[in-house]
Amino acid sequence: MPEKQRLWVLPWGLYPRRVTIYLEEKGILDKLDVVPVNITTQGMDQPPGKPAGSMPILEVKRPSSEGAEDGVYIVQSVALLEYLEDQYGPGSGTPDMRGSTPEERAKVRDCMSVICEATDFFGFYCHNASKLFSTMEEQSEGAAKQALARTHHMLSSLEKMADAKGPWLASSGDHPMLVDCIAMSTMQFAEAVYKVDLTEDHPRLKKLFDAFSARESAKMEEVPDFVQAMAPEMSVR
Ligand SMILES: N[C@@H](CCC(=O)N[C@@H](CS)C(=O)NCC(=O)O)C(=O)O
To answer: What average pLDDT does range 150-159 have in this prediction?
Structure first.
């Protein structure tokens, strides 16, 4: 039997969660060898075979031998989701999570761009406001304020674009699309790690969050104690 492709994840991490929620929703988690990477106050583990760098990382082609440089990897969550959707698209017996017409796909991608921008701003806010990063990075209260405001601005834009009926953002179907997995991971991570409710003042996102929370795919691993202890201490809220 061919070896499964390895997927390295920080199990509770913001960007890796996009992918694990998606895999659960598609029912294809068992197609990959999902490798959880541990993080402690000493830093991140480096399991054998994992390339250096942030997660998620998907191994498209395993290197010919340990340490060889001919392995092929995808290192950006959105590219990785698109690749998996290409592999397990219509006809694979799994839900189509990109849309079946150019218009539907455009709507999903449009909303994806907005939630990705909001997510990156939220991450920038956390790095500037949370005690978790205070000894590792130079922090700025002004930057934190601006980043949080931009996060909410983008979330408001997303709400305006969203399908009126819901709960899914870019379709009226019976299952979430790629954009919903991304939005859910952002809202869940914000709540679980930083105790920030990103759905406050965004009722349409709250509707998505509540519907998604009831699904099996939304079950999330425990956040390590040291992260839980420091992360929610924010200089700006
Ligand atoms: N733009 C990247 C961001 C990935 C990222 O920052 N991942 C975090 C975890 S949520 C990470 O792995 N941080 C640890 C590190 O950089 O070593 C993506 O979309 O995949």
So the answer is: 98
Q: How confident is the model at residue 67 (pLDDT cuts 50, 70, 90)?
A: confident
C-alpha of residue 60 to centroid of ligand 1, in Å: 18
With a 6 A CB cut-off, is 16 part of the ligand 1 pocket? yes
Q: Is 15's C-beta closer than 6 angstroms to any atom of ligand 1?
A: yes
- Give the DSSP per-residue string, 171-193: --SSS--HHHHHHHHHHHHHHHH
Q: Does ligand 1 lie within 6 Å of residue 77's CB atom? A: yes
Determine whether the shortest distance from the Cβ of 162 to ligand 1 is under 6 A.
Answer: no
- Contact between 77 and 53 under an 8 Å Cβ cutoff? The reply is no
Residues 40 and 110 placed together within one structural domain of the fold: no
Q: Name the domain count of the chain.
A: 2
**Residue 66 pLDDT more than 90?**
no
Domain that holds residue 209: 102-230
